[in-house]
């Protein structure tokens, strides 16, 4: 199943270099915020004790 690309990816300011996504100089603040939120959503989930990939696991297993 494919997912819809975020709107900022269609912008002429967006640079999709492998491992180095960024916006060109002069990009609107709104696009910068969208990119930052998107990149944060891709980070690994919180792995606190008692969780697996951020999902709480009740003890005993």
Question: Overview of this structure, please?
Answer:
The chain is built from 1 helix and 4 strands, in the order ββαββ. The protein is elongated and about 55 Å long. The longest helix is centred in the middle third of the chain and has 14 residues, at 29-42. By secondary structure, the chain is α+β, with helices and mostly antiparallel strands. The protein has a two-stranded antiparallel sheet. Strands 3-4 form a two-stranded antiparallel sheet.
Overall pLDDT level: 81
Which regions have little confidence, pLDDT < 50, spanning 5+ residues? none
Largest sheet report: 2 strands, antiparallel
Q: What is the terminal-to-terminal distance?
A: 32 Å
Number of helices: 1
Q: How would the global form be characterised?
A: elongated
Strand content: 15-25%
Descriptors:
alpha+beta, two-stranded antiparallel sheet
In short:
Helix content is 23%, strand content 20%. With 61 residues, the chain is of the alpha+beta class. The protein starts with 13 loop residues before the first strand and ends in a 5-residue tail after the last strand.
Sequence-ordered SSE layout with sheet pairings:
Layout: E1 14-17, E2 20-23, H1 29-42, E3 51-52, E4 55-56
Antiparallel strand pairs: 1-2, 3-4
